[in-house]
Write a structure and sequence with these properties.
With about 70 residues, the chain is an alpha+beta fold. The protein is about 20% helix and about 30% strand. It contains 1 helix and 4 strands; from the N terminus they run H-E-E-E-E. Strands 1-2-3-4 form a 4-stranded antiparallel β-sheet, with helices on one face.
Amino acid sequence: MVNWSLINSGGRKISSAQIRKNMVSFMTRNYPGSVIDSIERKYNAYKIQLISGLCLVFDADGRHVKTA
């Protein structure tokens, strides 16, 4: 289970709720039923590792940047 309350906006004007909404929205649309293995915050990006082995990278505003 992911503790989404640990994600914050780092002082930016966008709320942490909006960041979470953007990420969850993208994952629901593109990877329905996927299970999250881990979430890392690195500087101004979020790295979400899925159980399937895919890695999703989002910017500080929760917009998808790339899939690896």
